[in-house]
Amino acid sequence: MPHDEIAERDWTDTIDAYGLSISTPYERAEFLAERESGVPPFGDPSNAVAPEYGIVHDLDGMADVTEPRPAPFLLRGDLTVEYARVAAEHPAFPPYDEIEGAIADL
Question: CB burial class (10 A; 0-12, 13-18, 19+) of residue 37?
Fold first, then answer.
């Protein structure tokens, strides 16, 4: 799981990390109760944020049913994007070694 990988690499000791989830508040609460990753999730059940970042994934051709593609972004304090990668397919895990290198370059 991505959260396990992030926790194992101790990225949250180096950067402020946040997640974006289309899960309901109840699903997020259950997830957080099961595991602590150090990455607080922001809820976006309507998937309104994904179009703003170009990470929309249409689900099996269903009209108006979408979810975000996995997409890590690294931003500086002034919100300048230093690294971004959007998965070509869903689901796809991010390239953790590549992200770790980008974090080291910050």
Answer: buried
pTM over 0.70: yes
For residue 106, which amino acid is it? Answer: L
Number of domains in the chain: 1
Expressed as residue numbers, the domain containing 45 is 2-105
Determine the pLDDT at residue 101: 95
Q: Residue 55 class from Cβ within 10 Å (0-12 exposed, 13-18 middle, 19+ buried)? A: buried
Rounded to 5 degrees, φ, ψ at 100 are -60, -40
Segments in 1-106 forming alpha helices (H): 2-8, 25-34, 50-53, 96-105
List the CATH number of the domain containing 75: 3.40.30.10
